[in-house]
Amino acid sequence: MGDERPPRKRRFHAPVVLPYLGDPVALPGLVDRLASLPSGALGIPVAVSGAGTESRPADPTWSARVQAVGVRRAVVSASPRAPAQVGARVPRERARVEKRPRPLPLGPSLAEDDEGGDGGVVDVAFSSFRATPGRAPSHRAPPPPVDARMMEVLSACVRRSCGLPSSTPIGRHASMVSAVMVGDPESRSRAILLRVGSGKADAAILWCSYRGGILCSCFSGTHNALFLSASSRSCLCQHTTALRTSLSKNGIPFATFWRRMHLDPTPANFVGRQQYGPMRFRVVLYRSVFALVTSTAGQVATCIAPSCRRFRARCGHVVLSRPSNAERRAAAASDAAMAPVPKIAKDKPAAVVDGPTVPRGPDDEDAGIESEPGDTERSTGDAAEATVAARVRRNLLPCVGEIKAGAVWARTADWRALFSGRCSSAGGSRASDLEVMSNLVERSVRLGMIHPRTFVPVERFCGSCGRMREDRHVVKKERAVLYTHHPTAPVIEMLVGRWACDGAECQRLVEYEGSMDALFNSRRRDKQRRWVVLTRALLDKLYSYIITARSTYTAATRHLTSDVLSFALRRQDVVRLGTAMLRTFVIPAEAAVCPICGPNPEFVVIDGQALVCTDHDDANPARYEEEVPVLDMAASMLCVVQSAPLRVAISKVLRSAVALTASQTLLLDAWHKTISVNDRSCVETAAARLFFRFFPFGTKAGGTGVDRSGTLTGPTRAAGKAGASAATSDGGATAETEGTTPSTGLEAKLRKDEDGNLTLGGKGTPAKLPSDSWRDRVGHCAPDFDNYPRRDDGAWLHIRPFLQALLGETVTGMFQGHNEAAARLMANSLRLQDAGMWRDVTDAVDGIGFLTNFVGWFADEIDNDPHFRYALGTTLLRAVDMEHDIDELFSTAANKKETLDRGWVNADYCRKWGGRPTPTDYAAWLATKPAASVADMDNPLKSFESFPGLQRVRPGIKDSEALKRRVGYKGKDKHAADVEGDGDSCNKAFSIKCGSTQGVFNVVCPHVITLGFRCLFRAESVGEALSIVLERFPQLPKVIFYDVACKLDKNALRRVRPILRAHNVRCILDRPHSITHTCSPIYMPDESLGVTAGVATQAAEVSHSIAVANRTSLAYMKPATYMTHKMVQIAMMNIRKQQRLASANPKAENDHIPLAPFFHSQLSRHCQRGSDCDCQDSIANDGHRDTADALAVKLGWPTHLAEEITSPAPRASPSPSAAAVGDGAAAAVDNVVQGDDGGSAHPPDDAALDAVGAMQCLSVRPRWMPMSTEPLCDEHTAAVEALVADRPPSSPVRTANKAKITLTVSDFRLLVGERWLNDE
User: Which residues fall in a compositionally biased region of kind Basic and acidic residues (predicted)?
Assistant: First the structure.
């Protein structure tokens, strides 16, 4: 047993057999060639296609190298070896580090001769073999970027698919980046499965279409592979781009790759048995489209193909994979049944205690807190607050100077408490102790560590006019009490001074504020007639509880009372104190600007939130709005089918199995008979051909019929569910109503009792039975299940949305944002050209999901049936031309004499404000209006709206007519007040009178940065949403996501249509609310992936989930107090989110990171305390503000916090040490090296160097030239984009920094247009 070696660890997997991928004709020749080769001693390298495996074809030279090693081993075995010595020990070799030592050969150890010193010689071959160093640990060599690894595995997979040798490294662990070839073993259908991570957004499947395009199904894709497979076009995404690059780098012609990888014209459906990746993807081929289907823990299957995005849980791929998934679940269940299940003891629930439980946080503990009397007030001898100088503005977050000054006050309170305590206590060493303490206090005062008792703080400047106090101003000293943030020190008795400003236009009393001393005077006296003063740090504790912890003032008072022993203010006084301090904060505009979207975001999400406050009748918002109501434009003019009753009948057929009424039957019959007339110029005839192709009239209930081309057929025998529908002898429908025989079974006897439970029989109300779906319709317009099977979800999921959007709803906006001329070309190609010609002009409709799905699914039928093709082209042409017709209709309605006489200014508003106005344009217009009507519009406490980063550029708009209509509706009918046309069925809550406001209207960017909000005193309406967008955005967003975007779009296009058309604005539902809508597919986010893919449409809901915790504290505030707190709450939410976006890992949590350094280094323009503040020293020395790193070092915070606040730039030099930064030292700027000219310069990375090299052509031009307004060429545009592409927002992009200006990626994105010329 001792002579046996331990078993060797297996390093390779078992051989894997793969199907031959080459040309079948060449197979016999290959077999003959292999048979003629001499047999070798080594095996043939093979590849395994398992997901995540690192086993790939080995190096072609591995066979020769293994044989060479075998020769060396033979030499070692034949060499003589010395006998072993007793007690000898083998020294451990440091040249090789192994987790498990390799066993030595049999026989004596050669190392024993070396230890004995007898002159033994070690064989050179053996020494070189044993001294071979191991592979370097993985932590020493960081892995390459994901893009490089993706190209590596993709290249290997492409070479294997083309029959070429490939080589990739073999690792011990499964890689998250892999590319394997998958396919149907029964056919030539194959594709490449590419994974770059573990999530569904990290997987893609690529293949070649029969017509020569490269297609991809991935989560981030926007192109419909089903539609593109009908032409020779390819998908445009990062995966197809990587595949083309891989083919080019490996020198493989695309024709060669296509011959091996393309699908057949009609490939068979296929479901892969193997599952890939942690998400357990299953490869499915359905209707020439590969897709990845995954099942969750709850066995909910979803498909990631863009063509299936809206119905991703019940598309054809999911239906096809269900049997295979059921088999896997059954096998897993049987295995689990056979395995023993350990018994787990369950804890018994606690016994129920009698009596009510105590609530953790009552929601009404702040009720009426503002109106209750407190212990502080202004005395009768004090001047009225209207005659007191205005309060001084303060920083939203404390700067370095405020933090240091607050520490001095806390230290002063502590030392005074120690000195007073020693004075009041007896003892033998009392005199000596007091002398020592007095010396310490005097020295501390001289060093500025504490304040002397004789210090009387007085304001230096008047807060209203800014006049500086001089010696001639008389200072009146008054008693005050100071509450510090020290946990155990008592309050400080002190004196504060006040003086009267003698300015000609001021004449105000300047009371002590305390901004320069990091104090805050509440301007209220306690019961001892002393002014109540607090340190800024104590108020920061209060705000951290109210704003950050989102608690109530009552709970905050309890917390401060237990945390600071000297704090003894009542909660009523704390509310007034906190509100007064919050109103002094300055919220910079940068706090409400997304560093990625910039000042003009392409996407905004707007939504209302029920964060209410007490509604007082005297709270009237100060807003000046223009009268721009909804114009009289009939909804029928916006539809292809202009008859409203006929559209109702169409929607009933498409959505339910409810029987048609007599009038609806006659309408459908008359519409159907237009097919026999065959008027090719009539749009409704073409629409009838489309509709009755899938829902034939009369074939199930007697009378007329229709073939697949839409041609009228002879009468058929009456049939139906109850024979209720009949037909006339000439094929027309009678006036009888379709119906069903009333149920006489047990279902008719179901009742609901008083508790809502179902009972059989009784006197309760009849139970509502479930209605039949559209599949259960019989009689007229029953679905044509003979040609399109009932269970073929793939077909019907494309038919019904297409018919609903084109025939049952308004079609305006369908081609908004698309190339209408190209869409018109495609429609005419369908109408006028031969079959197949339309396939070459399909680019224009890529972004219209329901249209591409329909055309892609029925592409072959469109070519085979000329009637179908002509009807489709005619209907699409009408939808495209509708936009121009509605433009003329709007112009006519807006310029009518009746409209102008009523004071409506729709036409003038669109003409004046249709471009890209600036705040200067708006200010000039506002100056022409009466001063009284526009006063206080910029005061958030008067206008009750706050948009710090978005100034007004247009006047608001209002609709007085709609406001009058709302008054006339009561109860459940109030939703009818804002119905946008006769086809609008999407409801929304509207104005009612109650004791509180209706909430707030939030405007959020997709990165969850709240751009602003408006307090609603009436219920949310689409008119108010439209007014906010027009007022605040000079360049309107490309897409507006809203929970009732269907209403918003219809309202806007009948009020300010030219503006939205000029800016190509689209209104789309956000994903959380779209599932509850039954409106047109035009507004569904997953039907417009070209603009919604990768956009977080739920950003407003995410913001609401954070802010909803403030509901308790805000509910009982007055409107002005509510606005004050809401503005600070949103600012703090934004700052924390901006800090996360600027960090190296935007997904990491940052709750443990202080925001003050980031705020003052990235967002704050200047300190509100002025140039005397300590934080301004660095600006005076080196010309720019401290970075977040330097501020964190100055504040003495841990180094790791400073590192997490900002991410270092690539190849950055180390920042200065903390010891080199002092109070008087220059600001420490990280990632900066010294330039040749004495200035500072950031070390550029590869992207920056390439960008600078591409722009060197500018050096041959004159040094100073007039500013050019021409657009950049493609080369310069790519160079500019390379400066910021795929880089963290905090990375510097300025390579030469002579002006000592540090530009980061976030700054670069903000400096657009003319903003770099001014102070914005």
Answer: 90-101
What is the per-residue pLDDT for 829? 93
Most confident of 123-127, 1064-1068, 1160-1164, 1232-1236: 1064-1068
What distance, in Å, lies between the first and last C-alpha atoms of the chain? Answer: 84
Q: Identify whether the C-beta of residue 615 lies closer than 8 Å to the C-beta of residue 995.
A: yes
The residue among 233, 557, 249 whose CA lies nearest residue 374 is 557
Other CB atoms within 10 A of residue 1066 CB = 23
Task: Give the pLDDT score at 1217.
Answer: 33
Degrees to nearest 5, angle at CA 1040 with 1038 and 1042: 170
Q: How far is residue 227's CA from residue 233's CA, in Å, rounded to a whole number?
A: 9
Q: Which residue, among 467, 494, 489, 463, has the nearest Cα to 478 in the 3D structure?
A: 494
Which of 130-139, 233-242, 726-735: highest mean pLDDT?
A: 233-242
Place of tokens 């007095």: 438
Whether residue 651 contacts residue 804, with contact meaning beta carbons closer than 8 Å, is answered with yes
Backbone angles phi, psi at 960, to 5 degrees: -65, -30
Pairing label, strands 190-195, 178-183: antiparallel
How does pLDDT run across 1262-1305, given as a tens digit for each residue? Answer: 334 445 556 677 777 777 777 777 676 667 776 555 555 667 77
Q: Give the tens place of pLDDT for each residue, 1120-1155.
A: 888 899 999 999 999 999 999 988 888 888 888 889
DSSP helix/strand/coil, 495: strand
The DSSP code for 615 is -
Average pLDDT, rounded, for the chain: 76
Q: Nearest to residue 847, comparing CAs of 1098, 1068, 1092, 1049?
A: 1092
Cα 699 from Cα 677, distance rounded (Å) = 19
1306 or 467, which is more confident: 467
Partner residues linked to 395 by β-bridges: 586
The helix or strand, by DSSP H or E, that contains position 704, with its residue range, turns out to be strand 703-706
Residue 1046: its H or E element: helix 1045-1053
Q: How far apart are CA 164 and CA 182, in angstroms?
A: 17
Q: Is 551 in contact with 612 (CB distance < 8 Å)?
A: no
Q: Model's pTM, two decimal places?
A: 0.75
Rounded to 5°, angle at Cα 1173 from 1172 and 1179: 90
Q: What is the dihedral of CA 1111, 1117, 1118, 1124, to 10 degrees?
A: -80
Q: Report, in angstroms and rounded to the nearest whole number, the Rg of the chain calculated over CA atoms.
A: 39
Write down the H helix ranges in 480-552.
Answer: 536-543
527, 498 Cβ separation under 8 angstroms: no
Q: What is the pLDDT of residues 1046-1075, one digit of tens each?
A: 889 988 999 999 999 999 999 999 888 888
In this structure, of 199-203, 428-432, 601-605, 849-853, the range with the lowest mean pLDDT score is: 428-432
Sheet holding 289-295, edge to edge: 270-276, 281-286, 289-295, 301-303
pLDDT of 1040 > 60? The answer is: yes
- Residue 670 DSSP SS3: helix
Query: Is residue 571 within 8 Å of 369, Cβ to Cβ?
Result: yes
CA distance 1075 to 1055: 28
Q: Do 1008 and 994 contact (CB within 8 A), yes or no?
A: no
Contacts of 656 (CB under 8 A, 6+ apart): 771, 772, 773, 774, 777
Average pLDDT of the residues in 836-864: 90
Give residues with Cβ within 8 angstroms of 690, minimum separation 6.
710, 803, 806, 807, 868, 871, 872, 875
Residue 274 main-chain phi, psi, to 5 deg: -85, 145
Q: Are 670 and 697 spatial neighbours (Cβ–Cβ below 8 Å)? A: no
Backbone torsions φ then ψ of 460, nearest 5 degrees? -85, -25
Q: Which two tokens stand for residue 417?
A: 């408490």
Report yes or no: 409 and 535 within 8 Å, Cβ to Cβ.
yes
Amino acid at 106: L
User: Looking at 782-903, which runs of residues are DSSP E strands?
Assistant: none
Helix %, strand %, coil % for the chain, to 5? 40, 10, 50
